[in-house]
């Protein structure tokens, strides 16, 4: 059974100037680890993130690995496809926690959504933020050690002090071997920064995790 729109859903639609679309919207919920959609599938709607955390990935040239583009816990999914008038998903979206979205279908480039100044302004801001974050991730891969990149990856992908992800994808994104990733994770556990719990990790020392990340200087300045 599809959950009904509640007041907090309507508040989000209002934030994006989309209250007039509520009759065609629906709420959808996903479990942790689910693929919301895969790169290349047909795609003709916008998703507004209500709660949870997910990662947006693109396929590596080999076609075997997913490389992280950015994380999201708010904002829009499908904004790139909408603005580029693309009918297929340009990336894959995989949940890292229980995840809820509002699905807003659109017809074509004549849809009233394109004439909505509030929506288009908010969408443009989100695209700009994603571009900045992606550029920062690229710089981090070039300048920082494997441990620093791993700690940053965990910080960005954590949800309520827990971290869950596919280790093969992690290694590909960070740019280290799977074996080296396991060594680094074991070291963080031995140092009391992480605690392994089946298929996920609990962050037990957030301050040390920040200190060892490529974001250390940022946290010193801002926290």
Global shape: elongated
Secondary-structure-based class equals alpha+beta
Radius of gyration: 19 Å
Q: What's the overall average pLDDT, rounded?
A: 84
What's the CATH class label of the largest domain? Mainly Beta
Number of helices: 8
Find the CATH superfamily of the largest domain. Jelly Rolls
What is the rounded distance between the termini?
43 Å
Strand content: 15-25%
Order of helices and strands: HEEEEEEHEEHHEHHEEHH
Low-confidence stretches: 218-223
CATH architecture of the largest domain: Sandwich
Q: How many distinct folded domains?
A: 2
CATH T-level fold name of the largest domain? Jelly Rolls
Characterize the main sheet. Answer: 4 strands, antiparallel
Portion in helices: 25-40%
The count of β-strands is: 11
Q: Strand order, biggest sheet? A: 1-8-3-6
Domain HTH crp-type: 144-207
Domain Cyclic nucleotide-binding: 30-104
Protein name: Cyclic nucleotide-binding domain-containing protein
Pfam families: cNMP_binding, HTH_Crp_2
Summarize the structure.
The protein is of the alpha+beta class and 223 residues long. It has 2 domains: 7-130, Jelly Rolls (Sandwich); 143-220, Orthogonal Bundle (Arc Repressor Mutant, subunit A).
Keywords:
disordered C terminus, 8 helices, RmlC-like_jellyroll, 2 domains, Cyclic nucleotide-binding domain-containing protein, four-stranded antiparallel beta sheet, DNA-binding, Jelly Rolls, Arc Repressor Mutant, subunit A, transcription, DNA-binding transcription factor activity
